[in-house]
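Section 5.1 Outputs to date
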Amino acid sequence: MAEEKDLVAIAFKADKSREFLVNKLAGLAEVNDFPVPADALRVGTLDSLMSLSDDISKMDALAEGTCFKLFRQHEDLKGGIAPSVMGTDVMTYATKQWDWDEAKFQLKTPLRELAEMISGKIGGLEEELKAKVAELNALKGSLQAFERRGQGNLMVRGLGDIVQEDDILDSEYMTTVMVVIQKSSMKEFLLEYERLGDYVVPLSAKAISEDSEYVLFGVTLFKKCLDQFKTSCREKRFTVREFEFNAEALAADDAKKAEDEAECSRQTAMLSNWCAINYAEGLTMMMHLKAIRVFIESVLRYGLTSYRGQGMAPNMQAVMLTPAKGKMDALRKTLGSLFATSASLMDEGGDEVAVPGAAGEFYPYVSVSVSVFPPVL
């Protein structure tokens, strides 16, 4: 059965069985347990639940957003390969393998404290991701700056990797000037360059490089006519490129580029591994928040009931639905008919009532979307 990418966690009164739902939703959705530890989570007071129900949706949205960022960053670094959770694909983990981690998130902790602790950890992941991505982007920016030096035509590109030491004469009295000439003007330049200054060395013009439009010449002259030569070049629309050959600076640039390339590769590999680990961690924590949200909305909607003669417990059970592709509308319609008497939009007088914990579109059952894949941008 082809599946939708988004899951739906639902909860309903404990008087209906999971098997009942499996039979009714055949062909519309796969039904799996969603192990919300309802009998162990602390209910607290009605006021505390109402207050937390207003905040838990924001925590939930933050968790999903952070997981999406980690997912996309991993895909970008791994060439489209999606992350997994301990070697398990995320859909299988979310629908069949997730369970409450009591070692990390103790059930005896007050509900708000528990939710805020999980949300805080997820927020920490997002901040750490921002810092790591910024550091990697700074390295990439440095490498791109090196690349840009070698891009473009001879009018704009860097000359450091073109001009060699033996192309330059630099002494107390003499220097070599780099001049860029349009190919269509090359004959004119060769005929006139010796007369562009009073002390240009005859026959010193040397073609160093060329591209599809321009030729780079080196011309040797006495420094005392340098300004005159530059002015004459401007009048003739020959472009003098300011360039100073510095072997030590060029070697330092090459070393810096090699160092940045190695560091960029190292940080890319480390960030990829970090995203894989922390996406799994973030998704796990997001599932815990989803469970808390389902629990809160269920208690507010269905209340408590006697539990095995041991006191009161939430009157709920939760399942995770994997809708069949293209069947979401039919699934919602079927669920609506199945649970129409579980909750109502009308009170006894026929007036609409607000349902505690319900956000957005109302359903006659608790419904929380679970998106394990980021939306397509």
